[in-house]
Amino acid sequence: MIQPQTLLNVVDNSGAQKLMCIRVIGAAGNQRYARIGDVIVAVIKDALPQMPLERSKVIRAVIVHTCKEFKCEDGIIIRYDDNAAVIIDQKGNPKGTRVFGAIAEELRELNFTKIVSLAPEVL
Amino acid sequence: FYRWRSLEREKSGRLVAIQRQDRGGTSLLQGFRVQARCDPGRRPPLPFVPAAGQISCRPFSGDPLGETTGHRMQSLARTVCRAGTRGNPLKLMDCAAPRVEQSFAEPLRSCSWIRQIVSPIIPRDGVQAYGFCTRALAARGFSTVGTAEVSVEDEDSSSPMVEHPPRIKFKRPDKTARHIMNILNKEAVDKVRTERTIPDVQPGCIVQMRVQVPENKRRESTLKGIVIARRNAGIATTFRLRRLVAGVGVESVFPLYSPNIKEIKILDRKKVRRAKLYYLRDRMNALKK
Q1: Per-residue confidence at A30, pLDDT binned at 50, 70, 90?
Q2: Domain B177-281 maps to which CATH number in 2.30.30.790, 3.40.50.1780, 3.30.365.10, 3.90.1010.10?
Q3: A46 touches chain B (CB under 8 A)
Q4: Where is the protein localized (chain A) (predicted)?
Q5: Which residues of B touch A121 (CB under 8 A)?
């Protein structure tokens, strides 16, 4: 349940560390929350120095971890301990070259196959 | 409704014969008196139970097995004697009812004698609404329209002798439905348990399990973690597994009887004093991977 003003971790090596969500793509009237697999517009709040991505830059990201439970179709419910996202470009390709953490299998169906293939562990 | 007129009285004042008049016609009944109590403000019930063998009084010609009999059934059903004692009037009704359907293998109690009363309907005999008092069963939320339809399909193998069906208590239908759901749930659980052995996972167990994801790939992943909660719900019993995945804590809820879980192995049991170990979320130190 990510909404504007939510702080998210970044789990790739694009240079940013923390994002703040400012908009959920596809939400009507800003009423909807973002779940795993939704794209958000975020601003970088914290970044590593000397990297292509800098602080206070507006980028898009896809959510990969939520503290809110995510229900899979086979009855398994997954809940992470933190909220995290992977920075993507307009087409959906990740900006970084590595992804950390476990990625849910459902991202594959949402056309984020590149992220899933880079993941060290797929849930 | 009906009207009755007392014809004969014994010396002691007990009613022994009444003349009844209702839609089917008048009839003469002999029987014995019933002590019936009723709440103040209600109509006093008929203190009379007709003796055995006098049920069918008049041919009820031309009445299709339809709403009228259904209506009768309802009024009949509503006359589970509102007398104070619940059991005795039913027993008396039992004596009074002439035909007991033996073919009903598992009759529910009230339904059984209702069916007994309905069976005279089948050969188009008149049915008397005994009308002891109203709204007994309706007050308990009992609906009898369904039973009237069911009993119509049964054969009319009636024996004139009075034989008591096995007495099964029939509570309200929602309680019965819940009972039936419990039985179904238990059957489903037993069925799964006979197929594979599922160990007793309790909170505090370190568990290793093999889960198969059948959607895209036929791969079996091995998960290892600590059970922090268990929720019992029959076939939908779930347990919550907490593990560290690539540096991030992940909690997953698995249905215990899911066919996707191929094997559960308990590695260790930790002594915990709680059913739900949510305090482990704040402690990330000693979690198993």
Answers
A1: low
A2: 2.30.30.790
A3: no
A4: Plastid
A5: 245-246
